[in-house]
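User: I'm putting together a small comparison set for a docking exercise, and I want a reference complex before I start. The sequence is below, and the ligand is flavin-adenine dinucleotide. Could you produce the 3D structure with the ligand included, as structure tokens?
Assistant: Of course. I'll restate your input first, then give the structure tokens for the complex.
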Amino acid sequence: MTARFTMDETQPRLLDETAQGVIHEPMDRPEGRLKVTGCARYAAEHVLEGMAEGVLVRARVGRGRVSCADEEAVRAMPGVLGVYSDSRMLQVPAHGGAGTAPAQGPDEVRYFGQPVALVVAETPQQARHAAEALQVTYEEEPGDFDPDAAGTVDRPDKRALDQGDLDQAMAGAHRTVDVTCTTAPQHAAAMEPHAAVAVWEGDRLTLHGTLQMLKHNRAELADALGVAEEQVRILSPHVGGGFGSKLGISAESVAAALAARALGRPVRVVMSRQQVFETTTHRTATRQRIRLAADADGRLTAIGHEDRVYNLPGNAFSEPTAQSTHFLYAGENRRMAQEVARVNRACTGAVRAPGEAVGMLALEGAMDEMAEALGLDPIAFRKRNIPQRHPETGQPYSARALAGCMDDGARRFGWEARDPRPAQRREGEWWIGIGMAAAARVNLVSPSRARVTLREDGSALVETDMTDIGTGTYAILNQIAAEMLGLSPARVEVRLGDTDLPPASGSGGSMGASSAGSSVFVACRALRKTVAGRLGCHEHELTLKDGTATCANRRARLHELAASGALSEEGEFRPGTTKKQVSQASYGAFFAEVAVNGVTGETRVRRMDGTFAAGRILNEKTARSQCQGGMIWGIGAALTEEMVFDPRDGHVVNRDLAGYHIPVNADAPPIGVTFLEERDDHACPIQSKGVGELGISGAGAAILNAIYNATGLRLRDYPVRPEAILSDT
Amino acid sequence: MEIAFVLNGAPVRIDTTPTRTLLDWLREERALTGTKEGCNEGDCGACTVIVTGPDGTPRALNACILFLPQLHGKAVRTVEVIAGPDGALHPVQQAMVEHHGSQCGFCTPGFVVAMAAAHARGRTDHEDQLAGNLCRCTGYAPILRAARAAEGAPIPAWVAEDAAAARNHARQDTQADDAHPVFRPDISSGERGDAARGAESPPPTAPDAALPKDSDALAAWYEAHPDATLIAGATDVGLWVTKQLRDLAPVAFLHRCRDLARIEVSEREVRIGAMATLAELHEVMAPLHPSFAELIRRYGSVQVRNAATVGGNIANGSPIGDSPPALIALGATLHLRKGDARRSLPLEDFFVDYGKQDRAPGEFVEAVSFPRRPDTLSCQKLSKRFDQDISAVCGCFDIAVEDDTVTRARVAFGGMAATPKRARAVEATLEGQPWTAATVEAAMARLADDFRPIDDMRASAGYRLRAAQNMLARVFAERAGARTSVLEIAP
Ligand SMILES: Cc1cc2nc3c(=O)[nH]c(=O)nc-3n(C[C@H](O)[C@H](O)[C@H](O)COP(=O)(O)OP(=O)(O)OC[C@H]3O[C@@H](n4cnc5c(N)ncnc54)[C@H](O)[C@@H]3O)c2cc1C
Ligand code: FES
Ligand code: FES
């Protein structure tokens, strides 16, 4: 049976009433043992009978057409089984939730490193050597490689807003800030490289992939291959990190499927780390102009946020840079606008917290500058500008603990000890400073389904095609079912990552826990009703705990109630009108203390705190990890991470982990994470909101604001290079 | 070539092409996929394994840049088999589960193995021990907590078993003849591995390969094969294979030449064999020249330092190698050998130009030596990321001051020119002068005469010069008692 629920009105807080007491608990992840013993199997580790090995061939021009590939020579190499350049192969990855194939046709080269062919051989070494040896000639065409000088620039209407009169407000303001901030291109650099193993049985394809949103991925893959969705099954039970780079299918899946079909053998395609950098989506660089106007009372009268990003010509995605600027602060005169430079660089797409991850850096830096211009404490200034209603739509807000987070964080961090005058504290050759920034990330939910079965032995099984990309899905779906059905978590089994199971939201946009969690909740709520019915009582009277159902004076063990046959419910959760009634986001505040070296210009973060409010916290441990990890991404954005593109042909210069610097443990200071107790009744029936991306949304700005406090240098280019500091100290 | 080692407690004998990596072999031939590939070039630690050599010490190494012949006679442990025999988790595994040190889990086996190696050696400097392991999910704190929680837990029995197996081999190896290094584990069930599959995966074509047992054997072989590639720790050569897919034939593996790995500290000099690893050098330098030891601590990672050799770090002639500037500042002499002929030259003279060294075909680095003197060395490494990063600038200053006068100044830099290079103008400005701020400032100005650094991704030319000058100022401040350590940033 299917229990359908659409979020059209707020729901009773059932998870606060239930008796098992496992929700919110810091439960260990159930698959932890598999992971620490090396037994969790990732996509590339599936070895099938007769499997052949494919290696993608990378384009070595920035734009042009493949005129000829000397396939014959390569076919003669040892072990080589075939060279494929099927017109269905992908030029670029699909974007999150696309559900249709992205641009196809490997003959047209649109960026350096684009896959133009797949070489398949008996062993990976043979395939790599043959792929390297394949002579491809191109008709090269002139490309645009520099976003600042691109010939074509689009201005998407959906990113444009003009409300009131920004210029006039700026002209007549008591204080103004008008600054330009830049952020560098970034890569998700998940530790697991993209990989796929494809096998056909008749006209049915099974793909072991590493993907975040299986129901969409299945549709994308079917569309790319020109087959029906029913013919495609994707398995992705363990994903070694995604952070957006595995939201949509990319080259390896389609290439593996095509070659497997042509060869009549299973084919495995694993990207090298270099290919991951070159051909999977990355985050655009941004140039952002922020304008703020404030009156003598420290109230914002205007906000402008205009940005320039880039992507390939014709590609639909553009970073929603100003996403949170729309709702975070007051100011009646507002202007947002975006320019999308069309360049021949690898495709840009969603990377952890698309929009806020970069937009909040510019906005929160400018807010710090304005606070100083007004002579106000940065927290007091922000609090003064928290709007009553959404300044553009007039919607009320759902749960919003921004002020509470700032106050709580300030107290924990010792904010009042900060000297607001810059360059006052020196320890040896280090300048010390403290800074803060607000955190905000829009809350998203999306349709999701899950089946929950109460088995004859009284244990439960949760099944959905939802993925766990490290976020803790196995743990939280277990906890929700255990809580709702009154079982110890050990009595609940969770199966994920298989498109044969009910389709979930997928992991992306921090919506997975709330969306998939709500579907499990809805299924369990229906099961509780059935259980109550069997006991002859109303569900409101029912208590489920430790495998026993109690209502009024009746008691029964769950396995007795299910003895005549397992009880199964499919729960479907759909976003509804509450989404439009209110403005929904997760909020928080970051605090950072930095030491800036006067001799070398190095910056090191000495400590960092974050206080967050994201509705109900389903598992304290997994949520904390998400925020901690996110804050390290903030450190990366502020200090180390930067993709470098060659201006001559657009190739990625630092396409490995030696040149693209994700923080190491020595870069990571002690980080404190605190959650404020919150329920967001408008978000979903379990009152939770997204946490996975909140920890990055603004974190880097706290660091640059702290650098200002330490040195008096207003830096607006991310990441901060020691050069920038040394040249001015 | 045929080699033998112990894998997870069981003997293995295989016939392999010399440049096949352990990681490929584990994953493809043994289906031991717990050991992950995150980068295939030593940067991420996802492929960490434990290798126990003839000295019985378990060491963490990156399997992705470790060639199978380098394992000959050693014992290898992978993540799947580090638990106790009763199936209980290793203490570090248990702690990783409890402290939520694993999220997506892809980095986890590498961390677990690096932690188990450190645990077996009783190390508690977890930040250093895990500097070579990247994690994109956790933010590291839960992992470090797990490492601390497992401190002092009992060491599993396999640690001693692997040590015994490797020592046993070392005894046999000393009797083996040079052409056929043998390793006959007591157990007779020696598997055939690759050999059983018929042909080893063809490319690159099976080349001549040698495993000389000492430096005399190496000298003879190399003189006869002057175009061969020498492989020491393979932290550099490994990338030629995994990243550039180069065919290296013929090759000689140097790790059996234990006589080349000796570090001798006498009253007059310190002599470091070419095959001494950076990890071994670190131990010897810690009491003699702590600042050099500190520089080495930030060299790559534990896994890299356990493999990389001093000889390799010099012979590759990299302008950003970390040990040459320090050794040059210490007044080092390089000892080369070709056949029976030996010669020595000041280390700085070995570096002729970018990619060009004063080394003849068939000639190899035997050792580097420098005089014993009271410690006056200051080494400073500047990189974009704190650990596991190549230097943008590496400055080394050996400045002796007596009665407020500079009696000796040797200054060398990496990252400032096409080779590691002495700052002779700076030295001349310092030597014989009073050790004062004015002298130091005058010397700083002369850096621009010594170096014309370049702009690149790591740093701009102007920054390099400025930072190099400031490093000298820092030495002055240091001597005056100022606190300058880049480590002392904790509030
Ligand atoms: C992840 C990573 C991080 C690194 N970090 C650093 C760092 O921080 N600082 C730094 O300086 N380097 C670093 N390196 C570079 C590398 O570790 C060094 O260059 C290393 O010293 C090379 O030594 P090896 O023994 O591994 O040499 P190999 O790779 O075995 O050989 C290097 C070269 O030297 C030659 N050679 C080796 N031994 C001899 C000999 N006895 N006589 C003549 N020729 C010989 C080889 O033929 C080859 O040309 C790093 C490397 C990696 C992979
Ligand atoms: S795979 Fe990254 S270090 Fe070996
Ligand atoms: S847990 Fe995902 S990379 Fe470390």
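Chain A touches chain B through 95 residues (CB under 8 Å). The pocket of FE2/S2 (inorganic) cluster (ligand 2) is lined by residues B 37-40, 42-47, 62, 64 (CB under 6 Å).
User: Thanks, that's exactly what I needed.
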